[in-house]
Write a structure and sequence with these properties.
11% strand; 6 helices; two-stranded antiparallel ribbon; two-stranded parallel ribbon; 187 residues; mainly alpha
């Protein structure tokens, strides 16, 4: 979500991507079963049918990658084409987030670094100031109205409720406004 209330959908939750993911899982299971059927002692025999299936699996994997990268390019280009004065992204502890077994797959599919890299080079091309917020900047815990910092904030809380001023705001929008203010203070 951007500070001008533009929301970008998660490409991995679309029916098209889910359908291709399902096809990939089925192909992987099919290949695994073929390998088990053609097992000779401790070694596996690779038949021509297995080679065909593996080739098809590679195509499906490449298609998924292409869809994700295309969406990233479209999103970053759309953000840059709005001609902002500056763009602020916060540096995230992706390695730490990947340790959460429930979120690891979803985080991996988002391609955070690729998004960061594309925004960075497109800002350079278009003479837009690129600012990176420190990973310890409390962008999600700070109220965008009064500036008070909340001590505890769970990931499941999707609305930010300020204890000081009583402001109720969408959590992602609150973060984008805080990052905009951070950028204004630096720029």
């Amino acid at each position: 979500m951007c500070s001008d209330k533009n929301i970008y959908k998660n490409i991995n939750k679309t029916s098209k991507v889910k359908k291709i993911e399902k096809k990939r899982r089925r192909l992987q299971r099919q290949i695994s079963r073929k390998y088990e059927l053609n097992r000779e002692g401790r070694s596996y025999k690779k038949t021509s049918n297995i080679k065909k299936l593996e080739k098809e699996l590679l195509k499906v994997n490449q298609r998924l990658t292409n869809i994700r990268h295309n969406y990233l390019h479209q999103t970053t280009t759309e953000i840059i084409n709005r001609k902002p004065i500056f763009i602020v992204l916060e540096s995230l502890n992706v390695v730490g987030m990947m340790k959460n077994k429930h979120l690891a797959k979803a985080i991996q599919q988002q391609c955070f670094y690729e998004f960061y890299r594309q925004i960075q080079y497109k800002c350079l091309w278009n003479n837009i100031k690129f600012i990176e917020a420190d990973r310890f900047y409390p962008s999600s815990k700070t109220c965008s109205e009064c500036g008070s910092v909340k001590k505890q904030l769970k990931l499941s809380e999707r609305e930010y409720i300020c204890e000081e001023c009583g402001c109720v705001i969408d959590r992602d929008y609150n973060v984008s406004v805080n990052l905009m203010k951070y950028g204004q203070s630096i720029a």
